[in-house]
Amino acid sequence: MRKALVLMMACMLLLTACSSGTKDKDQVASGGGGEAKEITIWAWDPAFNIAALNIAKEAYNAKHPDVKVNIVEYAQADIIQKLNTGLNSGTTKGLPNIVLIEDYRAQGFLQSYPDSFVDLSGKIKAEDFADYKIGPTSLNGKQYGVPFDSGVAGLYVRKDYVEQAGYKLDDLKDLDWGQYIEIGKQIKAAAGKNMISLDPNDLGILRMMIQSAGSWYLQGDGKTPDLGGNAALKKALELYKEMMEANIVQVNADWSQFIAAINHGDVATVPTGNWITPSVKAEASQSGKWAILPMPKLPDMPDSVHATNLGGSSWYVMNVPGSETAADFMAETFGANVDMYQTLLTKIGAIGTLKAAAQGEAYSQPDEFFGGQQTVNDFAKWTGEIPKVNYGTSTYAIEDILVVEVQNYLNGKNIDQVLSDAQSQAEAQIK
User: What's the pLDDT band for 417 if we cut at 50, 70, 90?
Assistant: First the structure.
């Protein structure tokens, strides 16, 4: 009996040990008690996002030297493909701990795979960031994304061309798009320069126009197409056609032609996101000839303001082993580190959307290229004025439809029919 009792106790100890080992293994796999000390981050653009990650890594490792941070560069299209493939497969194997996602695409991932991303509501405070960034980074009251760079837009202006037409910079600080077109005609006549360069296949100009009025291609739910009766979109299209017919547009076919138009002095203004600044400054011979003014607003639209956005992205923690360390990394760096944001601005020109960062010294430095203007301070101010909209899941799908219909409109199709047909196509395509 004594031998049987000893054997039974030995078996119980063995079972307990096995059970404990299984539990520890499950904890590690779920990001629990045995939290991994190595994380992997995916992003694109070595000169901007990857550079920002390296700065964040250095700041984090100064306090947490035991954490290994792997930064992997992929093209944005490759990241989208890899995420979709991995998430559709139902396995997290091969997915990163943190991934950068463009704001226009974020809701598509959050709504399709809500359980694949970590709720960061307890790690960061949404109110600490620019209001307009919260729409694309949150879902059902939960904050999933850590807002990163601002796509706040400005009107880049060649002062010499403006002056040749008899205007002063102050004349362009409170414009609507109708007035912008009229000034463009005068500049074309006096200086022989086009007012703007546009790619017919890139409708960023429409995005900026309608967001300035608090409108988007979708209704507030981020799902229902809002094209047929969208007053802001109708006004934006009318102005787009007016620009084209005024002969003040230099048409470009791609990014390189767009940048060439700027650097060669072919255009008088560049209304776009602040990320264009390094490209403008790349032509050193134009130093002192540029200024950055508030964006024009939509005429006859009482809610339109002189602030809007184009582009921007945010960070997301994926629900894979290592998620707690990844969330901590985000909270301590992009989620709160004001000093780090000063470094991001100084070293790579990244304007963040953390409100407290805008009070830092780096944001108030004059830029001699722009005549000593405190350009970043201006951009930070405009960031706080950008209307909040829900980009939803279908920005690019709808623009594929609009690109065709806009050309039909330029070729004579009735604008109400254009918007009605676009609405019908969008409703059929977006479920």
Answer: very high
* Distance (Å, whole) CA 424 – CA 228: 8
Range with lowest mean pLDDT among 214-223, 260-269, 419-428: 214-223
Identify the CA nearest to 306 among candidates 290, 292, 295, 293: 295
CB 146 within 8 A of CB 334: yes
CA gap 292, 269 in Å, rounded: 9
pTM of the model: 0.86
Question: Contact at 8 Å (CB) between 318 and 93?
Answer: no
Q: 196 - beta bridge partners? A: 249
Amino acid letter at 220? Answer: G
The CA distance from 130 to 138, in Å, is 13
Q: Say whether 15 sits in a helix, a strand or coil.
A: helix
CB atoms within 10 A of CB 396: 13
CA-based max dimension of the chain: 110
> Angle at the Cα of 162 (from 252 to 251), degrees rounded to 5?
10
Three-state helix/strand/coil letters over 289-322: CEEEECCCECCCCCCCCCCCECCCEEEEEECCCC
At 340, is the secondary structure helix, strand, or coil?
helix
Do residues 381 and 126 lie in contact, with contact meaning Cβ atoms separated by under 8 Å? no
Residues 10-59: tens digit of each pLDDT: 433 333 333 333 333 333 333 333 455 999 999 999 989 999 999 999 99
- State how far the Cα of 422 lies from the Cα of 185, in Å rounded to an integer: 31
What order of strands is seen across the sheet that includes strand 38-43?
Answer: 68-73, 38-43, 98-102, 313-317, 145-147
* Alpha carbons 60 and 82: distance in angstroms, whole number: 27
- CA 27 to chain centroid, in Å, comes to 35
Strands 145-147 and 313-317: antiparallel
* Cα distances (angstroms) measured from residue 153 to each of 110, 209, 293: 26, 11, 9
Cα torsion 21, 24, 29, 34: sign: negative
Q: What is the DSSP letter of 60?
A: H
